[in-house]
Each structure stands twice: as C-alpha cells, then as structure tokens.
Amino acid sequence: MEITEEFKQLELLLEFNQSVSSESTFSNSERFGTFQDSMSAPIHRWFKYPAGFSYKLVEELISDFNLNSKSLVIDPFAGCGTTAVTAKQNGINSIGIEAHPFVYWVAQAKCFWEYDMKKLRQSITNLLAYLQSPPPFPGSDVLKNFPELLGKCYSDENLWVLKFIRDSIESFVCTKEEKDFLKIALTDSLRTASKAGTGWPYIAPSKYHQKNEQPALRVFGETLWGMYKDLTIVQANCHL
C-alpha cells in the first residue's frame, strides 16, 4: 500500500469518527462495546474475553468503509482477535498487535483455520479416547502446589482431571496448530467446569455465588466438538 493511500485511509477514519454523534448511529450501539454477541458466534466464542467487544461492530465498520479483499485492517490493540477473526471471515487481510502474551496466543489460535479436518477429527477422537481412563485420584496432597484460588473454583477430583487433561495434551503427538486448538478448548472449559460464579468483569469466587460444578472431562469433550463444528462452518463459508 502506498503511503498516500495510508493517509487517505486515516483521513477517512477521522471523518468517520467526526460524523458519528455522541449517541452513535449504530442500530445496536449499546451492545457493540460488550462481548455479548460474540459469546454465541463461531470462533469468537472460543475464549470468553471480558474486555472484548462485539464482532458486529467490526462487520458494520467493514460495510461502512466498503472494505474488500484488497483492503488491510490494522488493530493496534488486538486483544483476543475479534477484529482479525471478523476480517478473515470477510476475506480481508489484517494485522493485529497485542502486548499480552497469553491473549496474543489466543488470537493466533483463533485465526488459524487451515486444518486438515479429517486429521483433526482423528486427533480429537484419539485424545478423548485416551482421557476416558484417568488415573485414580491419589489424594489432596498431589494438588498442594496449586494456587489456593483453584481450590475455590474446583473440587479436588475435578482439578485432578483438569491436570490430567493438561498433561495429556502436552504429551499428545500432533501438530503445533492442533495442540493450540486442544489447549484453547481446555482454557475455555475452565469457566464451564468451575463451581465458582464469575461476573463481567471477574469477581473473586469467595465474593460471588457458587454454581453447580460440571465434570471437567465431559465439558472438555463438548467444547472440543463445538470448536470443531465452528471450523467446519467457517471453512465452508470462506471456501478454505
């Protein structure tokens, strides 16, 4: 892209910002600043990010600026990749910049869709089959090095299973991208499996109501297959 074109894009952005009233011209502006819409959207829902915003905001901006496959979107505060994922879904190249290593990793994993789906399905099947026989819980002493907060979020037995899943993923033979996929699934399973209620932003478990704890292995399996289904959707829509 030529420098003059970059300045032209910047001028368009400034003009757009000036044209938006304090009440916003967007039809659903009150939801654009939250992650609510993304909680049920393919790929976006892989990681519930309390500091996130709606992917629909990105879609509306793409439409307003008439962006296409020749455009380039730059997000200097990429977070968990809402802008990048939405741009990719619309066939638009993007660059994301994120300072937090973990959130950057999440965004990278969410933006990789070029899996061999047959191989990925087999990897998921093989891992879940192996996980069906976790070692017996040896007692609470084995968890003594875990942070105290985790004890408020999970029963000892469920935490033991989560540890087993984590260790199994680490030793599982697969591609780097597949391993990231499995780790994202485990990360997303933590909230659902937990007995601690959380708010937006997060509230300390000791100060918030408890909810029913869910079996970690079941939650992990459901999350994996849900993510797999998301990939089939975006691959079909984006003709990957």
Order of helices and strands: HHHEHEHHHHHH
Q: Order of strands across the biggest sheet?
A: 1-2
Distance between the termini: 25 Å
Average pLDDT: 85
The fraction of residues in strands falls at under 5%
Number of domains: 2
- What is the number of helices? 10
Low-pLDDT parts are 20-25
Counted beta strands: 2
Strand count, sense and barrel status of the largest sheet are:
2 strands, parallel
Helix/strand/pairing category: mainly alpha
- Form type: globular
Helix content: 40-55%
From the alpha carbons, calculate the radius of gyration and give it in angstroms: 20 Å
How does this structure look, described?
This protein starts with a helix and ends with a helix. It folds into 2 domains: 3-110, no CATH class; 117-238, no CATH class. It has helices at 3-19, 29-32, 55-64, 82-89, 101-110, 117-131, 148-153, 156-171, 176-193, 216-238, and strands spanning 72-75, 93-96. It has 10 helices and 2 strands. α6 runs antiparallel to α10, α8 packs antiparallel against α9 (176-193) and α9 (176-193) crosses α10 (216-238). Residues 20-25 have low confidence and may be disordered. The radius of gyration is 20 Å and the shape is globular. α4 (82-89) links the parallel β1 and β2 (93-96). Strands 1-2 form a two-stranded parallel ribbon. It is mainly alpha-helical.
